[in-house]
């Protein structure tokens, strides 16, 4: 059985201007010890998926579908159970560490907090665990006495990772964990994440707009467009969906500054979620769209070994026996 099984998940924000469907029937699974990358432009719904998995969305969000964590539906959990599951079974590393840390609390106390809340350690035991966690993420133990403003962006992101590891969860969800960092620090944090998930046999769901960052860490990649999954497959293989290909071309290489300055192959803007184009939602931006693409919706279909993609051209290849 998968550690995480997301089944037909939808997220709809209810605002004054009406319902905004941010996630539309996403299904995915993650095995124990596996790393899955979820990619897409901003507004694709990827962060909403991440937050929905631990029900961290605002009250205006309606969640439908199922999120099975170790066989238990997170969306159906009572609050007490949900609190127990957060941090201890699954934890999350947020985008931009400055928002995830309390500016007036020492680093060590913040890392210890999940341990104390879940009664996994107290007193000297908790302090020892904090020192151990700081060492694991490559920070000197005296940093326990520092405040967040005394740390660099990269060091703060390491603190967030230490907090996520504190209760030894089986799953870590990381939402753009390196986006706010400069390229050299980004590479160091990615190396750290790779090492920790391997050493501790943790499953990882990592969210990013940058496919090259995800491919660097993850076994499998999934791509979202306009709230839907448009492709999923092993990170070693070639993308088949024109949107995934454009996204990959926009950020070709980890740590290559030129690739950041000149995103290629992705013209136009993502659609308004309240007024999605008919047929394939990508068709107004798709460089290889057929006439039928504006009227005929496309579901995910087999697109090679362990790969699915939602594009009519993939189906044509199949029909020709390629
Ligand atoms: Fe492009 Fe059509 Fe494929 Fe959509 S279904 S990605 S518009 S070719
Ligand atoms: Mg986001």
From TrEMBL:
GO terms under biological process: peptide transport
Top-level taxon in the UniProt lineage: Bacteria
Domain ABC transporter span(s) in chain numbering: 4-251
Keywords: ATP-binding, Cell membrane, Membrane, Nucleotide-binding, Transport
InterPro entries assigned: AAA+_ATPase, ABC_Ni/Peptide_Import, ABC_transporter-like_ATP-bd, ABC_transporter-like_CS, Oligopep_ABC_C, P-loop_NTPase
UniProt GO molecular function: ATP binding; ATP hydrolysis activity
Membrane topology: Peripheral membrane protein
UniProt-annotated location(s): Cell membrane
Protein name: ABC transporter ATP-binding protein
Entries under SMART domains matching the protein: AAA
Gene Ontology CC terms, in alphabetical order: plasma membrane
Family: Belongs to the ABC transporter superfamily.
């Amino acid at each position: 059985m998968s550690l995480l099984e997301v089944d037909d998940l939808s997220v709809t924000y209810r605002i004054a201007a009406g319902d905004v469907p941010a996630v539309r029937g996403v299904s995915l699974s993650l095995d124990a010890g596996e790393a899955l990358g979820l990619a897409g432009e901003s507004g694709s719904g990827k962060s909403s998926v991440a937050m929905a998995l631990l029900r961290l969305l605002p009250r205006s969000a309606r969640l439908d579908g199922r999120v099975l964590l170790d066989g238990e539906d997170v969306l159906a959990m009572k609050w007490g159970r949900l609190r127990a599951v957060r941090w201890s079974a699954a934890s999350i590393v947020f985008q931009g560490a400055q928002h995830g840390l309390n500016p007036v609390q020492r680093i060590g106390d913040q890392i210890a907090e999940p341990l104390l809340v879940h009664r996994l350690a107290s007193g000297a035991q908790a302090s020892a665990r904090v020192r151990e966690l700081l060492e694991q993420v490559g920070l000197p133990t005296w940093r326990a006495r520092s405040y967040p403003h005394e740390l660099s962006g990269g060091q703060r992101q390491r603190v967030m990772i230490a907090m996520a590891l504190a209760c030894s969860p089986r799953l870590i969800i990381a939402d753009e964990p390196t986006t706010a960092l400069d390229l050299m620090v980004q590479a160091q944090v990615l190396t750290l994440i790779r090492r920790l998930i391997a050493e501790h046999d943790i499953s990882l769901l990592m969210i990013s707009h940058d496919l090259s960052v995800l491919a660097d860490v993850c076994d499998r990649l999934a791509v979202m467009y306009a709230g839907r999954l448009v492709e999923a497959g092993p990170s070693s293989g070639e993308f088949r969906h024109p949107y995934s290909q454009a996204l990959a071309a926009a950020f070709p290489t980890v740590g290559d500054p030129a690739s950041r300055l000149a995103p290629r192959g992705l013209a136009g803007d993502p659609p308004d979620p309240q007024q999605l184009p008919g047929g394939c939602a990508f068709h107004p931006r798709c460089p290889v769209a057929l006439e039928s693409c504006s009227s005929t919706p496309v579901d995910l279909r087999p697109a090679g070994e362990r790969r699915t993609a939602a594009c009519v051209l993939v189906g044509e290849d199949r029909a020709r026996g390629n």
